[in-house]
Design brief:
single chain; mainly alpha; Growth Hormone, Chain: A; membrane; MFS transporter; transmembrane helix; transport
Length: about 425
């Protein structure tokens, strides 16, 4: 499929914030935080739990705001303004991570929470733009290519970081803490450069009618949507399934390096594993889009959920670096495809003029699930003293999501859709 200029602008936003996703959320900041927390006398299990709680709190804030923000963005020429607002919060807070003194681990977590708000809020409006850049027939291909390019961009920015890591901070120009701070600055600059086309030129093709008081009207629109939710049975049941299975996906993404450290895996090796996951995720995201076109979006989503269910159950056997590699490969095969096809599946269901409002509900459930998952992992890890058992506990979420998604056609028929 040949993409338009506007579609490429949208796709490259995923490339742009990939630096934040891989360096800040997954690879560097979790390890950096555990190091500075350890120096302050916090043990490994508690620092892992604190990291999970910080992720949960950050997503809670944007979750509560998402439906209203989405409704506000559906007015003419509003979506790009809100995208800019939250994206710049994320970029500025990512820069700020580099200037926090290492001993102030509490302030580090606080700045990280604000960066999550910017990152997650930006993604809300980025997702909402999908219906503006692609029709129902194009959505699977555009969405999976966005995720695929995001992983490829993550590989490139991650390699730059690894050069600094392997070279000893560019031949001792940077300390170990300096290398971490360099990665935060790199992620922020990467974000600015490649998000700029969509931030500057993103065009909103679908919108609701302009009003004099968009805030109050947005509340009224949200109320009408909730009051008439029975009209959207298929959307509602999909969101319930999505709530559960995407929880596990997001939690594994945010907690992977902390769990790896608890297994005793060295930082450099963790970086190589994460690089490999990014490399695998790029072609497999595209492959999931191809599978959806040849079979169906629904079948491809089911495959992704089943793969993740196996990953969680197999986490109980995590004992060595080789075990960690195997599970990392499996994550790479399905992470991007499952997320991308869930987004396009939802985009095909919703009314296009209210896409941001509905993506607000989509994001609030995704974010609330991201609160639940890290809390489950943190609680079970503290209870058992084993982060592998905490990871395995996520299997219940994938199982619930799988059952509901399997029942989705029957549930919508029975409710009269």
């Amino acid at each position: 499929m040949k993409f338009t200029k506007q579609q490429w602008q949208w796709i490259f936003y995923d490339w742009a914030n990939s630096g934040y996703g891989i360096l800040v959320v997954t690879a560097v900041l979790p390890v950096y935080f555990k190091a500075v927390a350890g120096e302050s006398g916090i043990n490994a299990a508690n620092s892992t739990a604190l990291w999970g709680y910080a992720n949960s709190f950050g997503t809670l804030v944007i979750s509560l705001m998402a439906p209203l923000l989405g409704a506000l963005a559906d007015y003419p020429n509003s979506k790009r303004r809100w995208l800019n607002f939250f994206t710049w919060i994320g970029i500025i807070m990512t820069f700020a991570l580099a200037v926090i003194p290492p001993k102030q681990w509490g302030l580090l977590l606080l700045i990280y929470v604000f960066s999550i708000i910017g990152y997650s809020g930006g993604n809300l409006f980025y997702d909402g733009f999908l219906t503006d850049v692609a029709d129902d027939q194009q959505m699977d291909a555009v969405s999976t290519t966005g995720y695929g390019m995001g992983y490829l961009g993550g590989v490139i920015v991650f390699i730059i970081f690894l050069v600094a890591q392997v070279s000893g901070g560019f031949n001792c120009l940077l300390s170990s803490y300096g290398i971490a701070k360099f990665s935060f600055i790199l992620a922020a600059i990467w974000w600015v450069i490649f998000a700029w086309p969509l931030l500057r030129y993103g065009h909103q093709n679908h919108n609701v009618q302009a009003v004099t008081d968009p805030v109050m009207d947005s509340f009224h629109r949200l109320g009408r949507t909730l009051h008439h939710i029975k009209r959207y049975r298929k959307i509602s049941w999909f969101l319930v399934a999505y709530f559960f299975y995407i929880d596990g996906v997001d939690t594994i993404f945010t907690m992977a390096t902390a769990i790896g450290k608890d297994l005793g895996i060295e930082t450099t090796m963790l970086m190589l594993v994460l690089l490999m996951v990014q490399l695998i995720a790029f072609p497999f995201s595209i492959l999931y889009g191809f599978l959806a076109q040849k079979t169906s979006n629904r079948l491809a989503i089911l495959l992704g959920i089943i793969v993740y269910l196996f990953i969680c159950l197999d986490a109980l056997h995590l004992k060595s670096l080789a075990d960690f590699w195997v599970l990392a490969v499996l994550v790479g095969t399905s992470q991007g495809g499952l997320q991308a096809l869930s987004r396009s599946y939802f985009g095909q269901l919703i009314p296009k003029n209210s896409s941001s409002e509905f993506f607000g509900f989509y994001n609030i459930l995704g974010k609330f699930s991201a609160i639940l998952g890290p809390v489950i992992v943190g609680f079970v890890t503290q209870l058992t003293g084993k982060s592998t058992v905490g990871a395995a506990s996520l299997s219940i979420l994938f199982l619930i999501g799988l059952v509901i998604f399997l029942l989705l056609p029957r549930l919508t028929r029975e409710s009269g859709n």
